[in-house]
C-alpha cells in the first residue's frame, strides 16, 4: 500500500518590477517657489554653471584660433582642433550637469529649460528665471574670458556664434533646429523616470549621454554656425564681443534652439510617451 503524497505544482516565478506612476505635471504658475530657499539656490547653481561653461569653452575656442593663426606664429595644424573644441563643450556639459542636477536639474541652457517647460516639468516662473540666470551667467563667463585674454579676444571674434561664409540663413536655422532637437530629445530620454521602472536593467548616468549629444552636435555644426544650440551661450558671447557681425544673424541662435526644443518635447511626450492617447483614453473613461 503506497502512501498518498500530495503534489503541488511549482509556483510560477515572480517577476518583480518597480511600480511606476507618471509624476504630476508642474503647475503653470507656482508662486510658492518664490518663498523657498531651494529655488534661489537653484538659480545660483544655474548662474554659476553657465558662467563656468562659457568661461572654459570660449577660452578653448580663442586659444585654438590663436594657436592656428600663422600671422601670430601659430601652426596650421596646432591647437586642439575642432575635435578638441567639441570635447570642451561636451565635457563641460557632462561635468556641470553632474554637479548641478541634484540642485537645479542642470539645465545650463534656455532651450533645455524651454523644452522641459513645454513638457510640464518646470513651472513658468522657474523657466523664466532660469533663463535669466543662464543669460547673466553666460555674459559674466565671457566677460572673464575678455578680461584674461584681452589681447586676443577681439582679434579672434570673441568666440561669438556667426553664420559661416557660404551658408544661407535657412541652412543655419535648420542646423540649429536639428542640433537642439538632438540635445533636448537626449535630455528627455536620459531623465525619463520611467526608465528606472521599465528598463531597470539599463543603467543610465544622465549627464553622460547629454554631454555626448553636445559633443556630437558640435562636430556636425561647428563649420556652419559655430554651434549655438544654447541661446545663453550665443547671447553672452554676442553681448561681450558687441560687434555688428555677431548681431546680424543672432536671431537664428534663439529661434532655432527654441523650435528644436519644442519639437523634441512634443516628440518625446506625445509620440514616444503617448501623452495624447492617454489623455484621450482618460476622457473616454470619464465620459
TrEMBL record:
Transmembrane segments: 43-64, 84-103, 124-145, 171-190, 202-224, 251-272
UniProt keyword terms in alphabetical order: Membrane, Transmembrane, Transmembrane helix, Transport
Alphabetical list of Pfam families matching this protein: MIP
Membrane topology, record value: Multi-pass membrane protein
Keyword NADP: no
Subcellular locations according to the entry: Membrane
CDD domains according to UniProt: MIP (cd00333)
Family annotation (InterPro entries): Aquaporin-like, Aquaporin_transptr, MIP, MIP_CS
PROSITE patterns noted in UniProt: MIP
One GO cellular component, as annotated: membrane
Alphabetical list of NCBIfam families matching this protein: MIP
Similarity-based family: Belongs to the MIP/aquaporin (TC 1.A.8) family. PIP (TC 1.A.8.11) subfamily.
Name of this protein: Aquaporin PIP2-2
Organism: Castilleja foliolosa
Gene that specifies this protein: PIP22
Amino acid at each position: 500500500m503506497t502512501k498518498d503524497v500530495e503534489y503541488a505544482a511549482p509556483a510560477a516565478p515572480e517577476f518583480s518590477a518597480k511600480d511606476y506612476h507618471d509624476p504630476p505635471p508642474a503647475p503653470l504658475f507656482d508662486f510658492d517657489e518664490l518663498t523657498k530657499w531651494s529655488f534661489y539656490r537653484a538659480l545660483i547653481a544655474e548662474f554659476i554653471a553657465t558662467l563656468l561653461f562659457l568661461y572654459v569653452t570660449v577660452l578653448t575656442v580663442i586659444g585654438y584660433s590663436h594657436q592656428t593663426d600663422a600671422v601670430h606664429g601659430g601652426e596650421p595644424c596646432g591647437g586642439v582642433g575642432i575635435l578638441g573644441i567639441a570635447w570642451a563643450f561636451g565635457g563641460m556639459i557632462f561635468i556641470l550637469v553632474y554637479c548641478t542636477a541634484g540642485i537645479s536639474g542642470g539645465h545650463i541652457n534656455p532651450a533645455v529649460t524651454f523644452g522641459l517647460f513645454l513638457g510640464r516639468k518646470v513651472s513658468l516662473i522657474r523657466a523664466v528665471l532660469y533663463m535669466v540666470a543662464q543669460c547673466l551667467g553666460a555674459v559674466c563667463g565671457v566677460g572673464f574670458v575678455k578680461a584674461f585674454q584681452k589681447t586676443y579676444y577681439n582679434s579672434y571674434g570673441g568666440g561669438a556664434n556667426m553664420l559661416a561664409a557660404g551658408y544661407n540663413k535657412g541652412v543655419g536655422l535648420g542646423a540649429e533646429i536639428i542640433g537642439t532637437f538632438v540635445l533636448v530629445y537626449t535630455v528627455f530620454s536620459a531623465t525619463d523616470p520611467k526608465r528606472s521602472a521599465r528598463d531597470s536593467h539599463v543603467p543610465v548616468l544622465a549627464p553622460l549621454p547629454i554631454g555626448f549629444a553636445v559633443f556630437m552636435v558640435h562636430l556636425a555644426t561647428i563649420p556652419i554656425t559655430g554651434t549655438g544650440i544654447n541661446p545663453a551661450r550665443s547671447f553672452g558671447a554676442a553681448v561681450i564681443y558687441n560687434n555688428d557681425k555677431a548681431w546680424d544673424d543672432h536671431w537664428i541662435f534663439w529661434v532655432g534652439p527654441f523650435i528644436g526644443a519644442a519639437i523634441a518635447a512634443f516628440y518625446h511626450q506625445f509620440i514616444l510617451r503617448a501623452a495624447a492617447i492617454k489623455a484621450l483614453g482618460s476622457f473616454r473613461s470619464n465620459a
